[in-house]
Amino acid sequence: MYVLGVDIGGSGIKAAIVDTITGELITERHRIETPQPATPEAIAAALSQIVIHFNWSGPIGCGFPAAIQHGVARTAANISQAFMGINIDKLFSEATKCPCYNLNDADAAGMAEIHFGEGAGQSGVVLLITIGTGLGTVFFTDGKLLPNTELGHLYLHNGKKAEHYASDAVRKTEDLSWKRWGIRFNRYLIMMEELFWPDLIILGGGASKKFDKFKGQLTVEAPVKPAAFLNQAGIVGAALYAQSKIT
Ligand code: BGC
Known about the structure:
There is one protein chain. This protein is of the alpha/beta class. The chain has two domains: 123 residues, Nucleotidyltransferase, domain 5 (2-Layer Sandwich), CATH 3.30.420.40; 105 residues, ATPase, nucleotide binding domain (Nucleotidyltransferase, domain 5), CATH 3.30.420.40. It is built from seven helices and 15 strands. The strands form four sheets. Strands 1, 2, 3, 4, 5 and 8 form a six-stranded mixed beta sheet that branches. The site of beta-D-glucopyranose has 16 residues, from α3.
């Protein structure tokens, strides 16, 4: 089965057609800039452009940086507030004339890892954290997704939310060395371990590519691994999600 997988982010929208049996991309990845301001209508129009680019007329899965409850955006931390309460399944399906299924971006990345990456075959509790502009989280128990955990918003240090203290965006804006940032991120992992006791922690998102530069700072008991999928996880996982909705 082929599905158009889309990863909607604050700066770029990335997409490819995915073979959901193998988890492989069967086309080149196509990226366009996220329109600014990134209003629901502007994102819907950008998605239509992507559908035209691929000459696509089948199901679409989209990873989106918000809690998505039955198609409705419930949070808007790093996206336009105008998304709050909008049924984006409906909006994007109408705009593209294709059935479109949306899920949280970290949940999408997790779907790819649990099926085809570092989480494949892993029993017990797996926590995946995406490290980017925000901190996205997703849990699986025996391979089953717990959707919409927003644990980048836990308060971590001096009244700051974790994603305002230890995200990759903070590392860049505060010009932190990997070591100093790693110490901060380790605090977050310690908190997650004390609260949830995962059997395995997988790190995704941009910073996970630099795992070697900060792994020395990590002291949690659970094994910590960088994601097997680098920048394709969101696309592949979103496609898997759409597939699960139509079969
Ligand atoms: C959002 C989450 C998202 C994460 C990563 C957070 O700010 O609240 O929904 O998964 O960023 O993009």
